[in-house]
Amino acid sequence: MLYHLLFEQLSDTISAFNVFRYLTFRSVGSALTAMLLAFVLGPALIRLLETRQIGQTVREDTPDRHQEKTGTPTMGGVLILLAVVTSTLLWAEWTNPYVWIVLVVTLGCGVLGFADDYLKAIRKQPEGIRARTKLLWQIVIAGSAVAALYALPAFDARISLPLLKGFHPDIGWLYVPAAAIFIVGFSNAVNLTDGLDGLAIGPTMITAGVIGIFAYAVGHHGIAEYLELKYVGSAGTLAIFCAALMGAGLGFLWFNTYPASVFMGDTGSLALGGALGTVAVIIRQEVVLVIAGGLFMVEMFSVIAQVASFKLLGRRIFAMAPIHHHFELRGWPEPQIIVRFWIVSVILGLVALSLLKLR
Fold this sequence. Notes:
Layout: H1 2-8, H2 23-51, H3 77-91, H4 97-121, H5 131-151, H6 175-193, H7 201-218, H8 221-227, H9 238-256, H10 265-282, H11 286-292, H12 294-313, H13 323-329, H14 334-354
């Protein structure tokens, strides 16, 4: 909105408004706006959740010390979504279809997560929405978004792989189901990681920063050509969205850090994972997201490996899955697990950034 109002309408009269043409300026503005919104609205939301007694319902299949978290306000993802969407609409171009596709997936997954949290926290149904039902709706949301992306005139179904210079095979209509599965998978991976205070939001900010840099690079013709990246016109605006994710995450972390005053719930985790997956699909950097968000992948595959091992071999690989619970049962204090996982996420983010030049 600010771009259209201040740059397109007033920059000829007031030259200072020319600064709004730059993605870098608007990305910083987006991050700061989202962070301030989270800081300002956070206390009011937490009081509302406490007043309405919308607290966390701890499942039985978690470490015993998690029982003390029962009653902690949840659905804090509403705060993240409000900050991200508001900031993005303020600083991004409304004429960019990529912005709307990402926002639809973010809000769609957020609504699905909200319904799940509602059943758990208010209806006191610990299982929430049935897994199959949740998966079906995730596929509908992601599939609709990818189909809309595929229908854009400028879209092509060529994929991009790091370390393979100039290798962009066109997979045609198969891109739609493949990309939808990717988005759903990453959404669930972030959801599984959200088990300790601040564990998921830290890597989310780091991953959003990495993907935001790639979005800016692939959307800039000169930079994309120099770095031998697949150029995706107009995708640079998604850097503004990624910056909003970082800012909102930082503001939310103020309240979510150990010991947490509020949890994001599925409202936040499903939306954040879906958002990052969708941005990666648009900019054709799915492999980069897998590397930068490698911590989420480890969490997800630890659950898959645990279930497969138990069903096929009758024994468990980990003391408990996802893997952060395994370390809890091995005696690691919760803050230690969180910080060490953040360190791993930073390392993976740096590895992913190195792929900017390694082609």
